[in-house]
Amino acid sequence: MAELKISISELAELLSTNDFFKNFISDFRMEGDFIAFNFQTGQFFPRYVPVSLLFKKFSDGQIIFEISTNWMSDQFLKLLPVKNSKYMKLKFPLLFLYIENIEKSFLKGIHVKDIKFENGLYLINFLIERE
Questions:
Q1: Sheet bearing 34-40, strands edge to edge
Q2: Which residues are paired to 124 by β-bridges?
């Protein structure tokens, strides 16, 4: 089993360079223990809302984040029709990422076993599966 240690700032930089997110997320940055970014709404107003994610836990193949926004953005996000997918589910204020589905589509050969956040670092334990 392998272990990856990655800081929030390194994770934000990695995510900001990933084409998968560029259509609806911009301006990744680190704010303390939070991953912050602008979420593109696809609406005329507001065009984007500032969002922060706080890692809560990894459980049953899901990464769970708590979403933090300002009051106005909270109201907007509650009204926004959410398109849940096989990769994620939004149950405001929680965001669930289905890591097994993400692995199958985007991280072939990697199986995440555990994720913890300690002392400003994400500790990711994973297996590399060879075919």
A1: 25-31, 34-40, 48-59, 62-68, 94-98, 88-91
A2: 4, 115
Q: Do you find a cis peptide bond into 81, omega within 30 degrees of 0? A: no
Beta pairing class for 62-68 and 88-91: unpaired
DSSP letter at 21 equals T
How far is 17 from 12, CA to CA, in rounded Å? 9
68-120 residue pLDDT tens: 888 888 887 777 777 788 988 888 889 899 988 888 888 888 889 999 988 88
**pLDDT tens-place string over residues 43-54:** 787 888 899 999
What does the domain layout of the chain look like in residue ranges?
2-128
The total of other beta-carbon atoms located within 10 Å of residue 111's CB is: 16
Which position has the token pair 């997110």? 21
The phi-psi region of residue 87 (left if phi > 0; otherwise alpha if psi is between -120 and 50; otherwise beta) is alpha
